Amino acid sequence: MTTATRTVEADERLRRVLGEDTRPEQRPGALSTSLALGWRALVKIKRSPGQMFNATITPVMFMLIFTYLFGGAISGSSREYLQFLLPGVLVQGVLFISTQTGVALTTDLQQGIFDRFKSLPIWRPSPLTGALIGDVVRYMISSVVVVAVGLALGFRPDGGPLGVIGGVLLAVLFGFCVSWIWTFLGLVLRTPQAVSGLGMMLLSLLTFASNIFAEPTTMPGWLKAFVDINPIGYVVTASRSLMNGDGTSDVGPALISCAVLLIVFVPLSLLRYNKSE
């Protein structure tokens, strides 16, 4: 038997084993890989329930403290102040949770998990988008808890269920957009401690220097000027209008703020991620 004959027979056996019509499986798409990694983010929450505990307890604690400690002094009654406060606390709670995006990202970077993701035949940004999808679920859970506790305390939204749903969805959308800021900072700072410390400092400044707890009309001129351009204020005002049944005229500026954050920080995050090793 010649070498050529043995080669042909070997090729025939190989084709029979593999199958002549066998083709490689189609590469998973962007949506499927993002959803799969989003599920990974949710599983991480299940294994670390403390994350969800902080996400729900912190905004409820703020709502209770400000309602019953300052509500009477600010609005004359705690119940009336709760009508004003709850939409703002809803947004604040989502924003504080959003810092966890950058913290989780830097933790994975330190452990080398993202290096493994980059070696897989998947859509390259899916580890980022998947983590953000998981965060959206946390925002929704936190928002539902805040609204439920508020209703138990006496919150009565004039906008009805649709107004409440609209206010919650707007807060969740804003949290998703802000998460891209922490994604970018996580890729730049590279340590969970740095992202967490910077995030809490910035959000404490921006949330307290806003219209979450008081109307800007009572503030000094220099502070009111800052509050008027604070994007958090646009979202709080829009959520408050939706829940209180005051119409949708304030939604436009809030959506513009969300769009600006995405336009700026999504390209920056993807560029930084693609350059990172």
Q: Which percent band covers the strand fraction?
A: under 5%
| Through-space gap between termini | 53 Å
Radius of gyration in whole Å, from Cα?
24 Å
Specify the helix fraction band: over 70%
Q: Unreliable segments (pLDDT under 50, ≥5 consecutive)?
A: none
The number of distinct β-strands equals: 0
Structural class by secondary-structure content: mainly alpha
Task: Specify the number of helices.
Answer: 12
What is the domain tally?
1
What would the average pLDDT be, to the nearest integer? Answer: 86
- One letter per element, helices H and strands E, the order comes to HHHHHHHHHHHH
Instruction: Summarize the biggest pleated sheet.
Output: none
